[in-house]
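Journal club side-thread
Mid-discussion, someone asked how the predicted structure for our own chain would compare to the paper's figures. Pasting it here so we can look after the session.
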Amino acid sequence: MKNKIIMISILSLAVISFLMGIVKISPMVSAGYEMYKAATETISVPDRIEELKQQDGYITFDEIPEEYKAQVLQSEDKRFYYHFGFDPIATARAMANNIIAGSFVQGGSTITQQLAKNMYFSFEKKYERKVAELFVSVHLERELTKDEILELYCNIAYYGEGCYGLKQAANHYYGVEPFELTNTQIKALVWTIKSPNNYNPNAYKGIPV
């Protein structure tokens, strides 16, 4: 397991190094890098993090139910604790599916990349944005622990109907605090993240599997 973690981390760093090396010759990577610079110059990563932590409803890592953490990792990023913000396996799979579909249908984003997107960028499916998101992800992984990244993610993820963060979602959909959520309710909220407008508890009446 340890060797696998090291190999994945090295591969992730190699990919980032490669991207940095071709910034000047690749229009797409260059545009993404400029997007990243513009975003973080407008508000730095530390300042953006502090801004998020000051928002109403922000909860700490210890206030997030263990079952929720387990389910969100299983659903969104199984290798979260083993990569450096970029998951080569998930990305390769997404690229293959996009090629087969002939369009951008799957992103292969890690939780860190999703956090980066939610912190700075729109949800528009452009490769330049994916590159910018990747640069922010590396910045986050360098500055924060995995638990801190997961904490931020759970506080910024969108759950539909104007709800951002687990506390708002628990209050809005079930009238409870996060630690009072049942396993069924947790499962429904994790499912909601995949498509907040379509899968939130008020819109989707099926049973997530």
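Post-session note: The first helix runs from residue 2 to 21.
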